[in-house]
Design a protein that fits this description.
By secondary structure, the chain is an alpha/beta fold. It has a single domain, classed as Rossmann fold (3-Layer(aba) Sandwich). Helices cover 29% and strands 18% of the residues. It has 7 helices and 11 strands. The protein has helices at residues 9-26, 41-52, 80-87, 109-122, 159-165, 184-188, 203-211, and strands spanning 2-6, 31-34, 62-65, 67-69, 99-100, 128-131, 153-156, 178-181, 192-197, 229-234, 248-249. Strands 5-3-2-6-9-10-1-11 form an 8-stranded parallel beta sheet, with helices on both faces. It has a 3-stranded antiparallel beta sheet with strand order 4-8-7, with helices on one face. Strand 2 (31-34), helix 2 and strand 3 (62-65) form a beta-alpha-beta unit. The structure holds 2-phosphoglycolic acid. The site of 2-phosphoglycolic acid (PGA) has 6 residues, from loops. The site of 2-phosphoglycolic acid has 6 residues, from loops.
């Protein structure tokens, strides 16, 4: 795991966007795995800026998002489809035929999950997967006590996740209780993983992810076994781990 600690959220977003952009320059038809949540919004903003400067194109890019709330359709402002469209897709030259986000309204969930996995395989696998991390150590919606061997599947959201995500909804009751998420196995098959974390509330879980035991109780700990993971942290999220490892500090 390479750990890069930068000063603040702005720097984190720039670094992450530069890594994604360089992947796109080196392989214009890259398969990119995208994440939602507060953390990657700055990265998408930067990517749009780099795109507007004419340095990258999404024309041949294929995307697969990590997850989608179950029960929400694409037009719902809380859906991750809506989020991706607002933050990135509507602002760049992506071909929507190449955009993949699990269908939150799928009736046959098993078929939806199998199709999703088959789509990733057909595209040649994910070249670069962007990840955030939950305060409980989840990646995607793979909550504590996850099965490491799971692929895309329906998951029940943890209470902590429902609480954390209620800030995007008008009440906690409105937060869907289930979601379709790539599994740990799906994520682990990505060629490169870039995990982002910002703020002091992530400092402890980042320390445990890097230095703790590899355990389903802390889903992100499995990343210790992946050969190409870059973790980008701002100073607050890196406050504990920086005392215990040779992190690269960059400004
Ligand atoms: P956040 O979510 O970026 O909104 O903190 C991260 C996650 O839950 O994976």
């Amino acid at each position: 795991m390479r750990i890069i600690i930068v000063k603040d959220y702005n720097e984190l977003s720039k670094k992450a966007a530069n890594i994604v952009a360089s992947q796109m320059i080196l392989k214009p038809n890259s398969v990119l795995g995208f994440a939602t949540g507060s953390t990657p919004t700055g990265t998408y903003k930067e990517l749009v800026r780099i795109y507007n400067e004419g340095n990258i194109s999404f024309r041949e890019i294929v995307t697969f998002n990590l997850d989608e709330y179950y029960g929400l359709d694409r037009a719902n402002v809380q859906s991750y489809y809506y989020y991706m469209n607002e933050n990135l897709f509507s602002k760049v030259d992506i071909d929507y035929a190449n955009v993949h986000i699990p269908d939150g309204r799928a009736i046959d969930i098993e078929a939806e999950c199998e199709d999703y996995e088959a789509g990733i395989k057909k595209a040649g696998g994910i070249d670069l997967q962007l990840l955030g991390i939950g305060r409980n150590g989840h990646i995607g919606f793979n909550e504590p006590d996850v099965k490491f061997e799971a692929r895309t599947h329906l998951v029940e959201l943890d209470e902590d996740t429902i609480k954390a995500n209620s800030r995007f909804f008008s009440s906690e009751e409105e937060v869907p209780k289930t979601a379709i998420s790539m599994g740990i196995k799906t994520i682990m098959h990505s060629r490169r993983i870039v995990l982002l974390a910002s703020g002091e509330e992530k400092a402890e879980i980042i320390y445990s992810m890097v230095k703790g035991k590899i355990t389903p109780e802390l889903p992100a700990s499995v990343l210790q076994l992946h050969p190409d993971v870059v973790v980008i942290l701002d100073e607050k999220a890196g406050a504990i781990i920086s005392k215990h490892c040779n992190c690269m500090t960059q400004q």
